[in-house]
């Protein structure tokens, strides 16, 4: 058992990174990423960092950067400062009074976990009990104005060695782009689609036509709340239905599986309230034969390193959205950017979450810092 820690300060640092190319999904296009880093420093002098996955606007989920800062500053930080027995394993318990805000809670748990692992000289990979030393790397490809641009982008990712392709889709950008990409990459490469809630139950017949393309899965086609719609879709089509936005907790994951609404789950630690809850969802899915994979939120090397360790657990049987740092950023904020070797990303082996911050670069892209103290 790890010894409890006393947090003495919490830093909320906002950074700004330009994307190498705009990323368009069914809910909008972004050409830069604002990211909130959460640093927790403890009385023994160790600091851990968490990366919050919230976007600037509440368009993927209800949380957004400014709201996360507010809820941490106003409610969550004071509770953690007052805790006498703080460990990564009980951060979520301490914050239980506060409803929702899973991304804020996850970022705090992640920072405490990093500090705890660093002071104990252990890796996240060891802590989670994972065995694999590398994980296959998948890439998420946005929506383009023309199919020619899409095909050129996909060809580029294939050339870089990605193990599978995920295409963003929306009404008007689905059957034809998917058909052409399947033709381009051939029958053997893994291909899947992600609609980010862009369809309704009225589209079930249309979505059935995706069955022709031997997809690994269709991710979150319907509304976040529409579990029964996803069940109806799963009954109507052969392509496995995977949930992303709908799963914000362990209980929701169990319910979605029980209802037959999720044949596969995309586990994003930030969306479900942290890495430790992510592992519980993984374990539950594994015991019930539900494949899982690790999603991405355009993380920097901090989140990517940790996602990689999580994805090395045995139940992560499908390639995750764990791409190289260069997929989104010309320069990452960690000293050793995430790279693809032979279609895989190596699980980090240094203590903590597995990254070393490029402090000078982080300073140069910081747009605001708040330091909260005990
Ligand atoms: O980090 O590789 C990544 C991004 C993967 O497509 C991705 N994420 O719905 O799964 C998803 C999206 C959410 C982020 S969109 C801004
Ligand atoms: Mg998704």
List the helices and strands and how they pair.
Elements: E1 7-25, E2 28-42, E3 47-52, H1 65-82, H2 91-94, H3 102-120, H4 124-128, E4 134-136, E5 138-141, H5 147-160, E6 164-168, H6 175-185, E7 190-194, H7 204-208, E8 218-219, H8 227-236, E9 241-243, H9 250-258, E10 264-267, H10 269-272, H11 275-287, E11 292-294, H12 301-311, E12 344-346, H13 359-364, E13 366-373
Helix pairs in contact: 5-6, 9-11
Bound molecules: N-succinyl methionine and magnesium ion.
Written account of the structure:
It is a single chain. Helix content is 34%, strand content 21%. The longest helix has 19 residues, at 102-120. The protein has a seven-stranded parallel beta sheet with strand order 5-6-7-8-9-10-11. The chain is globular. The chain folds into two domains: 7-121 and 357-369, Enolase-like, domain 1 (2-Layer Sandwich); 126-346, TIM Barrel. The chain has 374 residues and is an alpha/beta fold. The structure holds N-succinyl methionine and magnesium ion (MG). The site of magnesium ion (MG) has 7 residues, from loops.
């Amino acid at each position: 058992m790890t010894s409890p820690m006393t947090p003495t300060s919490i830093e909320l640092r906002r950074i700004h990174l330009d994307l190498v190319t705009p990323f368009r999904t069914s809910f909008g296009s972004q050409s830069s990423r604002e990211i909130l880093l959460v640093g927790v420093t403890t009385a023994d002098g160790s600091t851990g960092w968490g990366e919050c996955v919230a976007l600037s606007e509440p368009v993927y989920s209800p949380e957004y950067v400014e709201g996360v800062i507010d809820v941490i500053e106003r409610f969550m930080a004071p509770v953690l400062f007052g805790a006498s027995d703080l460990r990564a394993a009980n951060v979520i318990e301490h914050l239980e009074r506060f409803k929702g805000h899973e991304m804020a809670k996850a970022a705090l748990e992640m920072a405490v976990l990093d500090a705890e692992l660093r002071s104990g000289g252990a890796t996240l990979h060891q802590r989670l009990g994972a065995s694999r030393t590398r994980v296959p790397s998948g890439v998420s490809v946005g929506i383009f104005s023309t199919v020619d641009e899409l095909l050129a982008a996909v060809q580029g990712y294939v050339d870089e060695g990605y193990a599978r392709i995920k295409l963003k889709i929306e009404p008007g950008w689905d059957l034809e782009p998917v058909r052409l990409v399947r033709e381009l990459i051939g029958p053997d490469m893994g291909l899947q689609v992600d609609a980010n809630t862009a369809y309704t139950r009225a589209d079930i017949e249309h979505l059935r036509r995706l069955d022709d393309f031997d997809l690994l899965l269709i991710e979150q086609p319907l509304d976040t709340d529409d579990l029964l719609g996803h069940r109806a879709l799963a009954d109507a089509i052969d392509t496995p239905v995977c949930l992303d936005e709908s799963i914000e907790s362990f209980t929701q994951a169990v319910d979605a599986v029980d209802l037959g609404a999720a044949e596969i789950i995309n586990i994003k630690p930030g969306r479900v309230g942290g890495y430790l809850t992510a592992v519980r969802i993984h374990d539950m899915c594994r015991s019930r034969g539900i494949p899982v994979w690790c999603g991405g939120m355009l993380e920097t090397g901090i989140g990517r390193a940790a996602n990689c360790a999580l994805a090395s657990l045995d139940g992560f049987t499908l390639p995750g959205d764990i791409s190289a740092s260069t997929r989104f950023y010309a320069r990452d904020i960690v000293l050793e950017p995430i790279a693809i070797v032979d279609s895989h990303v190596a699980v980090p082996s240094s203590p903590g979450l597995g990254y070393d911050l490029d402090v000078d670069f982080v300073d140069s892209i910081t747009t605001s810092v708040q330091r909260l103290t005990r």
